[in-house]
Every structure is written in C-alpha cells, then in structure tokens.
Specification:
The chain is 42% helix and 8% strand. It is an alpha/beta fold. The longest helix has 14 residues, at 85-98.
Amino acid sequence: MFVSVEKNFIFVHVAKTGGQALKRALRPYAVKKASGQWRRLLSHLPVAEDVDIQFGPHASVRWAKLKLPRPFFEGAFKFGLVRNPYDLAVSRYAFVRGQGNHHRHKDAQKQSFADFLRQERRRALWRPRDQSSMLCDFDGKLLVDQVYRFEQMEEAFADIITRLDLDESPELTRKNASKRGAYQEYYTPVERKLVEQIWKRDLEKFEYEF
C-alpha cells in the first residue's frame, strides 16, 4: 500500500494485478514510512496512527480505514486494480512455482494446478484470498473510489496520471510477470469449480467470466 499526502491518494495493492509497475510511478510521492521497532509493532495493532504507518505491501483498505487519520482517509482518492480471477489464479500458481525464495515454492513444485487451488481454498478458510477482501468492508461494500482493471491497464494508468497530476506516465513493464501460456489452457471443469468457490465474490462483483 502507498499513501501520499502530497497527491492525496491511497493505493491498495492487490497482489498479481500489475501493481508493481504503478508503484514505480507512485513511489516518489508516497509518505516515507516511520522507522523503529515500536512503530513496527504498533503497525500490527488495531489502533489509529499517523499517515507514516508501516503498512505492508498488500494491506487492505479496511486496515487503512482503521489505521489512518479519518479526515485523511475520507478525503483521499482511494483506488486499486483487479484481475480476472481465472487469470489471477494461474498467475499465482506460476509465480509461486517460479520463485525459488517463495515460502511455498518447494511444495508447489509437486502440486498440480488443482492441488494448488485446493490449498488456496483451505487457506481462504482463515484468510480470504479474493480481491474483494482487499477493497471492501466486511459487508461487501466497496471502500475505494475507483476500481481499475488489469485487462485495461493502459487506460487505467492514463486516468491515474490525470487524476493525480503525476509528472510522468508509468512504464507498463510488468516486474513480477510469470512466464506461462494462456490461462484457459490450465483449466478443466475441476479447476474452474475451485476458482468459482474461492473467488465467487470477485466474479459477481466485478462481473468477470471465463
């Protein structure tokens, strides 16, 4: 997550939605995070802080609402990117298998795509894996002002540049892009059903189809 007082925005970075390219453009305007072990500890507690909170890279907008000063949160332009869940699931699978330093890399080498999704489903029982959990409140209401789509990234970046009056347009280089074929090639009815269980809210709220 990036927070900027200068440009008055809160960027909620949903993993594997192309956010790395955007963060390169937003970083010069982001508030410098507070240092120190005390602030690091405080950042994990449900108490309000100032705008220099040590947010994690993929903090949710719900957490931002809780932690940031209310006047700033309410007045800032809040936005994030989403991606077709069928494509997102394949991207996560390929990313974990391709990153040797990922904590799930070793296990993923032995997993089929279906096995990987079953593990995602189990993990979702204690921590939601969908994009809606990053961008909505507990009742499913969007807490961001704008949801952009990975599939329309050029248009999204152009709009962000205009809205925030940034000096330069971000380059559309996908830093963590995983190497793979078309996502449709990974699916049988089994995998499709698993994705529809894990990302049910996303498919409905953002109107994605296979």
